[in-house]
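Changelog excerpt: complex records now keep ligands as SMILES alongside chain sequences, and the structure block spans every component. Example after the change:
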Amino acid sequence: MEYTHRFRARPNEEVAAALTRHIDIHRQAYNHTRYEYENLPSDTDTIGSAYKHHKRLTEWKDRFPVFSEVHSKALQRTVTRFYDNLGNLSDRKAAGYNVGKLRWKPPREYRSMTYSQSGFELKNTSGQTATLWLTKIGDIPIRYHRDIPDEAVIKEVTVKHEYTGEWFVSFALEVDDADLPEKPPIDELEAGECVGVDLGILNYIHTSDGLSVGKLDVEAEYGHLRKAQRTLSRREQGSENWEEQRRRVASIKRRIRRKVLDFQHKLTTWLVTEYDAVFVEDLDVKPLLEDSQNARNKQDAAWRQFITLLQYKADLHGCHVKQVDPENTTKQCHECGVKTDKPLWVREHSCPSCGFLLERDWNAALNVLERGLRKLGLGQPEVQRLLETGAAVDATHRESVSASAVVEAGSPTERKGSPGLNEAAVTAE
Ligand SMILES: [Zn+2]
């Protein structure tokens, strides 16, 4: 399987200047690839695919010494990037979009380069910092806030200079499927090791075990963003002030994205390490909520990212993750199956048919759990066994954790002042 880890990079001035120069050379290489693709006769045997086009690079270097300044594998990768973009373009065309041609890239639109397979090394990965070494560039300190697992192979490294002036490096990682931990056999799943997760509106998530995790508060950041955008709209487009403000807007947006991502990383890691099977609703078929379109889009994007993280981590940590049919998970009584309409403001599920009383989102999470167990292929007696013993529904087991507590402690169940931490403190004395 393949996935990506992205880190903030802090090159010193000299290295940043070298990176900027290299990226600009790659930009020229990209544009030159495009030029040749458009202008050389189509029967030229070194045109038409990245692989063929790579053969032209020796000639390039003879004619334009500047191309020898950058790492040759990275230069090949840039040619490949052009053909990748070309492929994406024709995919979009095939999907019915009205697409033009690939455009010439001015400096502000070309901001990254990729080292593929060689010419890089990740060093000193202990603690919160690490160093990325790139050939022809040097050492780049990175904020190493998330470990790259030992069994992962780094296939590519992309260095990007954002509009905000910040530098980032992304590692494209590959883990051999044979090295992935095995998922527990489905017929050996234990009660209490399976969980249904309701992606709520008021609460960010509610689990079938009775844990609710509050929504991450990004209102202040969105307030800043709106203000900065208003200021931007008053500036003369293209002016120096406008440019500066545009960078400010981009930086606030990124701060919000990062905050949400960090929170989601912590939640998803906790879920796949705490449980053997995690079930969530399938968003693609989830009916629209009674919510403004804008809020809805934001929420949607966040949920999609949450599920993407959950899925790749499922493979990394040996956990089953399934998406289930979301229809009526809220309306349906988990106890007797009768459906009752519930407006958004009704926070409790109180069944008129059987009297079952539970929090709205908790009831939904239990339904998600049940559907997930079925989706794993378990038969009715097994589903019943796992539901009965596992989710012994007892409203007194309910627990709420705020989003900020999750961010601080790294998981909803390890909090500051928990017995474990106190013990450690005592031993330290
Ligand atoms: Zn009922």
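Residues 198 and 365 are 5 Å apart (CA to CA). Residues 333, 335-336, 338, 351, 353-354, 356 surround zinc ion (CB under 6 Å).
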